[in-house]
Each structure stands twice: as structure tokens, then as C-alpha cells.
Amino acid sequence: MHVHKMLFKASTVTCHHSCQRTIGCLLHIKHLTVVRCDGSSLVSITGSRILGHNFCRRMSTRQQDVIMNVFDRKAKRLHRERAALGLTGEDATVYDYIKDEFGYRLSDRICDIRRKFEVVVDLGCGRGHVTKNLYADMVDRVYQCELSPSLLSQAAISPDVPTFKVAVDEEFLPFKANSIDLMVSNLSLHWVNNLPGCLRQILQALKNDGVLIGSMFGSDTLHELRVSLQLAEQEREGGFAPHISPFTTVNDLGNLLTRSGFTMLTIDIDQLVVSYPSMFELMYDLKGMAENNCSWSRKSQLHRDSMIAAAAVYKEMYGNDKGIPASFQVINFIGWKPDPSQPKAAERGSGEVSLKDIDRIDLLTKKIQQIREEQTDLTKTDNTKQKSDPVKED
């Protein structure tokens, strides 16, 4: 393994089109250690621990902000590493049905923007759920960023878009300011401790009029499993610990994006319900997705009696003919970096229509209808004249 120190310099890495390319865009990655693995096309780029920490602190710390330390990021990295290897040696991609679905939906949202993006970063790319749906007429090049190197090595790529793989922690983004056109994140940011700081880092990395398009699990995700585990553990053990990680609410996410400096926000919710035979299959699939709990307050184990009781409670309270339902609330969001060319709200007092005239709307509607009827009558009259006086052919 050969290690090179980089500081504002371009480097030659392996491009996933079987050719060597000098990544000029690496000028927008700073304070990095590049790790090249012989015989592998994976290039791992991680930030210097001291420099990355200071960079994040300058980017995200405000007096009114309280940086929460809810998630064990080391445990989450291990979860993703194990998910990349497969739980029992089977094809690990069988657990990607939710992330594949919303990765496709995010790529469809990118298509709705009438612009070709030069530099795109897929933050928390997983197995390439978004990147594999991108095409050359949409983007010029893509950087797939993932916390787990093993999962990153399995990430699918687009067949006609140059793609580069970079191991990056979402909490310490190493990108230079004003260097990225589009940042996309699919079901990854809900595991970030300092979400306000992460959003500010993304905003600084984006170019003016750059856009962030993402999705993350909302607060109603897995509420059936949460309630069942709490009731069972309370009854069997006299108390309960959090087994489902806390998620962000829609209002909180909107406020965070606004406070971070994003404009022209678009936020909507998708509700997905998946049926499972029992609670145990649901928990097994969550482990395969690397979506198991990693909060610091989690218990090291869940007692057998409590699990059996929780499965019974789940089936009794929520069960149906298809088994048990599991709800996944996904918050989709789009935010733009401010730019003078963007449309802005009209200045106060510049309106030309008064709300006092709202009582005249019925009168105006009737006048418009009369004008349309008169235009229709004129058209019919003209057609009648043309039929009665046909043009003679020579």
C-alpha cells in the first residue's frame, strides 16, 4: 500500500473506465491522504484527522447550535462493512430494494432539472443506487463517496459517465469551496451527528446556483417496530431502551436547510409500507441494509423473551393477511445555493393587484367568459362565410 500526501494538488488515480486519468477536479479536495491498493481500482481518500476536525468546526459551529453526539459512527461503519460482505454469504444486494427504489426516484428528479451538471458528488452512495441511473446527457463526471470502503468497492457505476470512488466520512467533507455543481445523497444523512454542520459544509462546497438533492428517513419510520419493542421490554424487563434510532422530522429538516443558507427549498414525503412474514425477517433485512441501530444509548443485546414478546405484540397490533407491515417514511428535499440569477420574492408594496378587489372576482370571471363566447361566435361566422364563397380553381 502506497500512501501519498496531497495538498491542493491534482493526482492520477484509477478511473472506472479502465484508463488512467488526471483528476483536475481533485483540486477541489484538500487536506487528503490518498491510499492506493495494488490490484484494486478503489482509491480511498480520507481527510487528515486534525485538519478535518478543525475544518468541520469552523464550518459548522455557531453559538446557538448544540452539536449532538447521538450515533456511534465507528459502529455504523462496521455495520456497512458487514452488510457489504453479506450476512450468511448470500448476495448482499437482495437487501437493496428500498435504497434502489429511492435512488431511482432521486435520479428522476435530477432529470427534471434542465441542466447538465459538470461535477456531481454522490454522498453516501452505498452500492451506487443513484449513480447507476445517471447518463452522459445529465452529468459529466461523478464522485461516489461512502464511509465503508468495502461497500464502496461494490458500488455500481454508470456505463457512460466517468466515475471515481472516494472513501469519505459525511461528517468531515474534504471538498474545496465552490467546486461542486450537484450534491446528491440517498438515505444516508440520517446517520450524521452534526447535521447542521454537514449541511453547511455541503453549501460551501457547492458552486453558486448549485443544488443539493437528497432523501432521508423521517420520524415515522418503523414506528410499528418501535412501539412493539417498547411495550414488550417494558412488560418483561420493567423498562425499555431505544432500539430504533431517532429520525429527523419534516419541520426540523426544513428549518435546518434554511438556517444553513439554502434557498428555493422543495420538501415532500413518500410513505412506503413493506410487508414481512414476521418481526424477525424485518430485523434481519434491516441488518442486511446496514440500517440497524447505532445510537450510543443502545443496549448491547435484546433478551430472547423480550424479542418473542415483541413479535407477538407486533402481530397482534399491526398484523394483517400479508404478515406484518413496516412503514418507511422518506423525506425528499431539494435546496439551492443562493445566486443573483435566481428568482426572488417581490419587494414589499410592489403589488399591482389589491386584495380589496377580491369580491369582484365573480364579475371578472363573467366578463372573461363573455369575451370568449364572442370570440367563438366570430370564428363560427368566418367559417360559414368561407363555406358559402369557396375559391374557384383555374
From TrEMBL:
It comes from Arion vulgaris. One of its GO terms (biological process) is methylation. Keywords: Methyltransferase, Transferase. This is Uncharacterized protein. Gene3D superfamilies: Vaccinia Virus protein VP39. GO terms for molecular function: methyltransferase activity. InterPro entries: Malonyl-ACP_OMT, SAM-dependent_MTases_sf. It holds the Pfam family Methyltransf_23. GO terms for cellular component: mitochondrion. Residues 372-394 are annotated as: Disordered.
